[in-house]
Write a structure and sequence with these properties.
Elements lengths: L1 H15 L4 E11 L11 E7 L4 E4 L5 E2 L1 E3 L4 E8 L2 E8 L4 E7 L7 E9 L1
Antiparallel strand pairs: 1-2, 1-9, 2-3, 3-4, 5-6, 6-7, 7-8, 8-9
Length: 118
């Protein structure tokens, strides 16, 4: 019976686990502009799907990423709810750069986050 349970557990992990998905928990570090820290969340959750080459930050839409700097940085850009977002994730040190702006004539406000794999 013990062997049967071991085989069932092994098969369920292989069927249901998707090893191309990575989930990151990111903590706020600092903003790019002085005195703007109140405009950014203290925590972000990031999910990276390397098989489909997509990334999702919190509950924002899933977006395809591009790889820059010889595949060390994943970068996405999208417009959602009248905000423009640019997110960059460094694979080497797991630093997340999160930039957004409300209107097209404004400059981007940005923050840095330190991430760890969950």
């Amino acid at each position: 019976m013990k062997y049967l349970l071991t085989i069932i557990l092994f098969m369920s992990v292989n069927v249901f686990a998707d090893f191309s998905m990575t989930t990151l928990d990111c903590d706020f570090m600092q903003t790019k502009q002085a005195d703007k820290s109140h405009m950014f969340s203290k925590k972000l959750s990031v999910r990276v799907n390397e098989k489909r080459k997509e990334m999702r930050v919190n509950l924002l839409p899933v977006s395809p990423y591009i790889q820059t700097n010889s595949d060390e940085v994943y970068e996405i850009g999208f417009v959602f709810n009248k905000h423009t977002y640019i997110v960059g994730l460094s694979r080497v040190d797991l630093l997340l750069s999160f930039d957004r702006k409300l209107k097209s004539d404004e400059e981007f406000l940005g923050a840095f986050y330190s991430c760890k794999i969950i």
